[in-house]
Protein 1
Amino acid sequence: MAGHPATPVSAVDQSLNNQIRKGVVMSVSEQVAALEQAGRCVSQVRAYVQQGLKNLKSFSMVNGKLDSDLLDKHQLSCYELAFCTAELAASDAVCRYSADAVTEDELAASTALAFSAEAVSSVIQRLIARAGDMGLDIAELSGLYADSDIRELRSVYGSGEFLASVGATVSERGSTRLPTLLNEDKEMVRDMFARFGADVVAPLAEKIHREDLDIPDEILQQAAELGCFGISIPERFGGLQPDDRDDSLGMIVVTEELSKASLGGAGSLITRPEIAAKALLQGGTQAQQETWLPRIASGETLCAIAITEPNYGSDVASLGLKATPVEGGWVLNGSKTWCTFAGKASLLVAMARTEPDPALGHKGLSLFLVEKPATPGHRFDHSQPGGGTISGKAIATLGYRGMHSYDVFFEDYFVPADHLIGEEAGRGKGFYFTMAGFAGGRIQTAARATGVMQAAFEKALGYSRERKVFGSAVGDYQLTRVKLGRMMATLTASRQFSYSVARMMDEGAGQMEASLVKLFTCRAAEWVTREAMQIHGGMGYAEESAVSRYFVDARVLSIFEGAEETLALKVIARNLVGNA
């Protein structure tokens, strides 16, 4: 697996490289050739990632089967290989996009090449750092640096001059947008929700955040009128999704624009209806679908998802909210946590244990449609005529305000029999009914991350052009231009990775990729918002500056919809190792 022997760079090639470093526009053929070179580099490095996964599999096999306990002894390697896989997949996606966009905007190829150069370097460094743990030869890995393709990719498109030239181009344009390559219908939807975000959501975003308010009815009502809550619900039930196919791409295009305006004030409005709708479509009876989906799609019924519990976090199989059969239905006893939007919601989709045998694990879980009064504010308490109660208290958080996440407590709370999703046929299947929604929630979270990054990048670009230090605009300095170039590359890769996975999901695939894009994009959002804050200097730390909100909002993205560590170890790495 040793890399190709190093080849000297000719004087002609060196001259071209020097021109490229200085930002000279490449011809279309040169852009295509460079993108193909980046693809070769990614393929070379991916071969070592695959070898690392195969080695972990061999370390963790017992009697021909993968042993989870043995694999858990290699958690650090699993974690690093999950990120390596995600970074390389992002590079593939942005290079494919750029190859299609070269005739429309030369900056597309430049951003893809800049991203690929850094991704390849990052993966090599990760592999070298853990070579012994992964059973890889450190000398072979180090030899990748001498490979002619990789050396040129890193030295040309990863150079300070090239990155600064990308940043300078963005700064001169005053725009962070590249061609979307979306069709006319998707572009029209994107534009409609972008206007809604700019005109309705954004003016209220700072007040919602600073005063920790509920999402105002002004936003909810207009979002409902635009069909926001029906994005993932088929048209036959009053939603916007075609009856004959999924439209994950449409969902994330809308989510990105709402999240750009405000993550807590609008960006997550689609998530809960999407998970609820997927569960009902997957396992609900016809009567349940006809009753609930139109109400959710219209915004008449706002919903929340009650899955996580205080002692189990992402360990869904161990959930303990107890559902006991009684005449006419069930009573729920126990608690949930991080139940976002539970106050304003009048419907909670709650996962509870209906089968008392703990050995059944996730096979003993069922999903319930739990009705309660919609209650504004940070607390709610409701008592049923028969004595059952449900109560909730909002958890104070440093960001992601507006939605409010609650601790929720059930005490002998009665739920009618026809509110068990699937009724008797749905007993023990709640875990499976939520799986499709979880995948959709993960790719949607990637879109939320992209929206937050877009907002932060636009603020950083504007500030860098206006703010002067030492007699020059902040954006005139090379380091700022490098930051802008890297931010542009990361943002573009995140967007195109999520678009690519959405298209896969619309074709019935992409479940693993949904986890990969969530892993990559949410971490990227932390870095991009951090850099945006840094470009603002002291003003970035001031609460009056929007970038401080973007920074604290971005931090939650790697935690919800599958915590980063759980996603990397229990979902991504286990799948990758098992299939290595």
Note: The first strand starts at residue 61 and ends at 62.
Protein 2
Amino acid sequence: MTQDISDNRPARRPAARAGRRGRQTRDTGSADRKVNYRQLRNPFPPMMLYSEDAITAIHEAALTTLEDLGMKILLPEARQQFRAGGAKVDDAAEMVWIGRDMVASALETAPQSIVCRAARPDRDVLLETDTLVFQPGAGAPHATDLERGRRPGTGRDFKELVRLTQHFDVLHMIPPLIEPQDVPMNLRHYFTMDAQLTMSDKLPFIFSRGTPQVLQSFEMLSAFRGLSDADFAAESHSYTIINTNSPRQIDKPMAQGLIDFARYGQVSIVTPFTLMGAMAPITVEAAMTLSHAEALAAITLTQLVNPGAPVCYGTFTSNVDMKSGSPAFGTPEHFRASLLAGQLARLIGLPWRCASGSAANINDVQAANETQFALWGCLMAGSNIVIHAAGWLEGGLTVSYEKLITDIEVLQMVAEMCHQQPPDGPDVSLDALSEVGPGGHFFSADHTMRRYQDAFYAPLVADWSNFGAWTDAGAKTASMRATEIWKTILATEPDLGHDPARIEAMRRFTTARSADGGAAPES
């Protein structure tokens, strides 16, 4: 990988500011309350919906699927990797049969803990056991807000959503938010990398759309961060999402992405997207058997390419409306599939990603209920990464600015529950109990006022006070107030402390590459 963006790569610059809510230290009266939304731990014990025997049986069924039924692998290089590892391969049929011993060996070398390096140490992401990472809605072809309506995603939308993701500490990684469809595909990776690197200091996402685009994205990232080739390969500085083509198929771009990211030591999040009754069997257990088999096949490929390559187990399994064929999310089946996925992830011992989401068309009560129910499925399942946790509508067709804001409120409530008890024990406050006599009130008690004055219990995003008098012409809905919030955030562009020389060098690079025709995506 050639490093030709900049010859001057100074050391990583310190953060320009402490950050937004989630990094403050607050006076609680008796001790400082340190709030950190940037590194969360899931405080909930994982729910064990199925017995250990049942989980083992599903795992064994997935291994049998790979051994006896096989996977269709469209990329010749990937089939060669499997062949070299001992798999049975039929090139004419593009089929690979993967033995359970190969899978077991892959699970032995895949790391159980992954450190992902962001632009600054306090933005680094740790993926292991009980860590908890949130991402907003992603992969949508459309964006929507109350002022501009629903529209095909644009470069402007992508930049704005990057900035909104950057603003909130409870969102930890930049996902593929929306497709900027006004940017040509051969140039789109330049645009999305530029936006992520200049408008954020969080962990960036790179599309797996062929080796040329991936390597140019790696080149932009490593030079912008001042990393040598060896430094870049030694640790994970980016990630991609790999979706299998259910049932039992991995296409060329996804297989190539697994190879490229494994080869350069960057994170692949392997996520079969299986909808029960459509591209997966209609029962939860059978659908998850298929999803598990596909994930194991992709994970095995990464370890054949580079033993020890960082890879995450992922799942996104829900059901469809069998009358219309439309995806459904936030359903009991979605919740159950998440719990089952969590048990399978713990069985194989890898960090894993799950998904929230909603099939609602607008930011209404259906959207809130589905997203929250799906979110709790992820939390109870012990997911390390939760994607589509804020802003996702229409089963992935749209990211909503207003829904992103209203969902953030819920995520920050969850983040509050992630804090451990202070080391000196619970604040039982006998002084407050003695200060107020029977039948009194605590509004003006010293214990209350010392915390209230520091906005200890202030709303997390904005003032979501009562809707107001129903006859009041100025009363605003939650979505109307959310519009005001995202507009306020976007009205001021923060200084993230990025080196202007590196920004200029990166743009010279992309200008030159664009003049040469960019890089066409893999088909």
Note: The first helix runs from residue 52 to 69.
